[in-house]
Design a protein that fits this description.
The chain is of the alpha+beta class. It is 47% helix and 15% strand. The chain folds into two domains: 2-65, no CATH class; 84-235, no CATH class.
């Protein structure tokens, strides 16, 4: 069994335990194989150029699209004695930088959509969510990672631990069905994640990620909830004594 990931990482214990498999990656294995395919397709221009385009796309997704000259110049600069101390401190601050970038994303989305937003940092992957004050505690529009992609769903407090009772499959909002983690279904907003792709942090920092993916998804769900009284009543806190 070949386990294909962007960077060749191992499978989680839940899915890989007891399975004899070999790790391969888009970053090395697939790009090298496609390079050989280009040579084979030398007399078929359309096929050859299509493969080349896909190679360039994969290099972009796996952070290999800088020219060798530029990479060499950066490495030489960072390797100078006067820069070493600063370079070695970068890992200490990188996580804080990522949290700061995501916090800005959350704030911009919350302001644009009229909701509250929070960052969840108790997980390695980092996830964030948005909610209205009238919703039940723990109910939110959730954004996280699944199978190397960014997904979104309407979460409940119980669903965070996979203990939710499946509710209504909102097929107008999500393309994937309901389960104990996603009682209303879930969907994907982009085909890459912030664990293995550096360029996504550039998009987050300049605001384009929020504008392209997060804000439209949040607005779509909020508009749907406002038009569906049954769903709205399920999400909102009801005080029976009133």
């Amino acid at each position: 069994i070949l386990y294909l990931t962007p960077d060749g990482r191992y499978a989680s214990d839940d899915s890989g335990r007891g399975v004899d498999y070999r790790c391969i990656s888009y970053k090395k294995t697939i790009i090298e194989w496609l390079g050989q395919c280009v040579g084979i397709a030398v007399h078929r221009p359309l096929v050859r150029e299509t493969i080349n385009q896909y190679i360039n796309y994969l290099k972009q997704l796996t952070g290999q699209d800088m020219s060798t000259i530029v990479q060499s110049e950066i490495i030489n600069l960072l390797s100078k004695a006067e820069n070493i101390e600063s370079v070695l401190q970068i890992p200490t601050y990188i996580e804080a930088v990522k949290d700061a970038i995501m916090t800005k994303v959350i704030q911009s989305v919350a302001l644009e959509c009229g909701v509250k937003g929070e960052l969840r940092t108790d997980l390695k992957e980092r996830e964030f969510y948005f909610y209205k004050e009238s919703w039940k505690e723990g109910t939110s529009i959730y954004f996280g990672l699944d199978k190397g992609k960014v997904y979104y769903a309407i979460k409940t407090k119980e669903s965070l631990d996979g203990k939710a009772k499946p509710e209504i499959y909102l097929e107008h909002l999500f393309e994937e069905g309901i389960d104990a983690f996603d009682p209303y279904g879930y969907g994907y907003i982009c085909e890459y994640d912030w664990l293995t792709n550096n360029h996504i942090w550039v998009e987050m920092a300049d605001g384009s990620f929020a504008k392209k993916y997060i804000i439209p998804s949040v607005k779509k769900i909020l508009e749907f909830v406002e038009c569906d009284e049954m769903l709205k009543s399920k999400l909102e806190e009801r005080n029976e004594n009133v």
